[in-house]
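Entry for the shared binder. Reason: the reviewer on the internal report wants the predicted structure included alongside the sequence.
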Amino acid sequence: MFERDPEYFSHLGGRLYSSATLASGGRFDKVLDAAAGGPQGYARLSATDAASGDYRDGDGRHVPSAWGKWSNDVALGWRPQPGTLLELSAGMGDGSARYATRGMDGSRFRRESLGLRAEQANPGFGLARLEGQFYYNYADHVMDNYSLRSLAPGRERASNPDRRTQGVRVKGTWEGELWELLAGVDAQASEHRRRVAMGVERYRQLPRQADASFTQAGVFGEFTRQLSDNTRLVSGVRLDHHQARDLRVQGASNTRAELLPAGFARWEHTLPGVRACTQASATCSVSLITGSCSHLPTRRSPPCARKKPRNWMWERNVAANTRARGSPPTPGRCATTSCSTTPHPAAPRATSTQRSGRRGRHRLAFRAALGGRCQPGLRPWPQPQQRPAAPADAPAGYPREPHLAA
């Protein structure tokens, strides 16, 4: 399950992002991300298409490795009143890939998804925010040895597994001046099926046979305490019940169930003039900057446009991810460091790592960006355009500070 932040438009308008990439080996990528709407709702469309040809080795011989994929995702959001959001999303995609080291190729990677989410700010009971989400995913995969390669007649074979997953999650957030508590429950169920046949497209005539099923239910909580302007303590616990059944075997021995507890504690400290994250999970996001820089925002930080940000911890992670992808620091934004100099474009970049967070897995890398003038022939990062700030009557729970244009 992947999450995206909802769109917000203070007035009727829209945004558009499009890109295309060409490379050797027949590589051609296209991306389109567009959204339009107003204070009462929005519509968003995301589409991607990418393909690459076979690899050619040092002797000029083709190595089967061509692949292609596409995906389309649509989301419709409605805000019947300030602080309330209902969003319906749907998506689909497909792809294919040739494998030089396997006996079969992936001729189909079809996927379908459907999601419904609801958010309410200040619903009562001391809650700052209540969120609920339902999702449905279906994956249909085909491996065969005749669609993407030449084969002698009579040796065709195909395997067609699929998996259907449904899940739900509900979580609430309590906020104080120097702390934030998030707690919730989630559950998921999925079934795996398969069919195998000899001959071209013969598998389509066979019924699917379920061979495994999985269920999961869990509770979780996370507490963040701001110890000072630059120091915070984050801790969390989770308890899950997992059950897996092997439907190919009859009897009690085909079921396995486990109760799995988990927890973490992380201490974070930001050094003056250095964007750093030092934590127990051995994940770090670092950006060395020169110039006059502001500290990470806290609930006592006057530069923030609002007293209680929607989620200052999440905004900090977004800022770190933005810098990790090579974008410049964003001036004038809560949860972002403001700097008066341009980072050096030739700064080294390290391998990305994984860290666990409230929203799943976040990919973080670190960039040591030393300030100063650019080297000859290198251009500084352009300053991004900003959208107008949201009006004072914007729905509760949504950012008021300027947003970066996508």
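Summary line for the report: Residues 13-283+295-313 form a domain with the Maltoporin; Chain A fold (CATH 2.40.170.20).
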